[in-house]
Amino acid sequence: MAGFQVWLVRALASVKPVAHVLRTHWGWPTAESLHFIGLSLLVGCIGLFDLRLLGVGKRIPIAALHKLIPWGLLGFGINLVTGLSFLMTEPDQYIYNPSFHFKLLFIVVAGLNASIFYITLYRRTIAPGAPADAPRAAKIVAATSLSLWIGVIVCGRMLTFFRPGPCGPEGPGLLAECIPRRLGR
Amino acid sequence: MHAFLVWLESTAFSVWVRESPSLLAYPAILSCHTIGMGVVAGINGAIGLRILGVGPGVPIAEMKRFIPIMWFGFWLNAASGVALLVAYPTKALTNPMFYLKLGLVALALVLLRSIAARIFHENVLEAPSAARGVKVLAAASLASWAGVITSGRLLAYTYTHLLSNSR
Q: Which residues on chain A place their C-beta less than 8 Å from a C-beta of chain B?
């Protein structure tokens, strides 16, 4: 796994043009601003839908509010693109960062959680004539989604405080959480 | 002003937020500020998108149910923002970008007030000309929140003095 991380850092760093743009005076701040705007779009649309499933604004038809979801996905898309640009510019600051590992984990679980909703609950939740109160299972999915996205935000902010330093004499373990000098060569 | 900044930076709370190694100090406050940002800009953004025509089946007046949650995010950010300001008062107060951010927050709140007066109390969207007026306000609101986020983010790159004793 540590070997895979080293390979990944090298592969990401090999995408030179992106890093070139991000290292200009306004590159990184602009990408960061877009990343935060995308975050707000995601929270505002997906988080709002979660709140509706949990019972806020019960007079709003769930199916109607679901039309906001593509805009939340647009926010996610903006963040995927800008996030990848950060990765390609400073790969070792993310790939060896435990906060980034948790951020990715939470994003993947949020995706699985949403898939569970669409596979098992979506049709009966948004069907015409469905009760205004969402099924209990949908509420659990919504609460899980809100918690995971809050977790993603917190891990994103914590990246700065868990920056990897050089590895000690024992070297990286299974998962590198420090910059491995030996493997890096 | 300089004496005030020196004093503020020497208070126990300022030193704690800035220098404590605890994750509950600066990192937690910064996380709260980001979560609040998502809630405030996100809910305002969703209301703006609805006014501009996204989700036409959503009864527009019912969006007011999300307003108390929006205010929760707002006060979370006012409180966490003050804490971040107390930690680094010189950094913010000597940066014109900080005043731009506050001005844009004020503008966005004024816009929210006039949007709320139109969509939560009377059903103006049924009159096409009035609807156009609200749409302009909604577009301006989306732009202001994007401006608040951008100017806030730029605070990390545009400051000239970090602390009162630094250049």
A: 29, 32-33, 36-37, 39-45, 47-48, 51, 56-57, 59-61, 63-68, 71, 150, 153-154, 156-158, 160-161
Q: Which domain holds residue A80?
A: 2-6+25-161
Please give the tally of structural domains in chain A: 1
CB contact under 8 A, A37 and B23: no
Are B46 and A45 inside 8 Å of each other by CB? yes
Structural domain contains residue A79: yes
Residues B66, A48: C-beta atoms closer than 8 Å: yes
Whether the Cβ atoms of residue A84 and residue B74 lie closer than 8 Å to each other:
no
ipTM value, please give it.
0.94
Which amino acid type is present at position A181?
Answer: R
Contact B58 A64 (CB under 8 A): yes
Domain-located, residue A185? no
- pTM over 0.80? The answer is yes
CA B137, B126, B56, A135 torsion-angle sign = positive
Asked if the structure places residue A78 within a domain, the reply is yes
Cα separation values, A167 from A9, A155, A177, A181, Å? 16, 22, 8, 7
Considering only the beta carbons, identify the residue of A51, A64, A161 that sits closest to B57: A64
For A23-72, write each residue's pLDDT tens digit. 999 999 999 999 999 999 999 999 999 999 999 999 999 999 999 999 99
Instruction: Share the mean pLDDT of chain A.
Output: 93
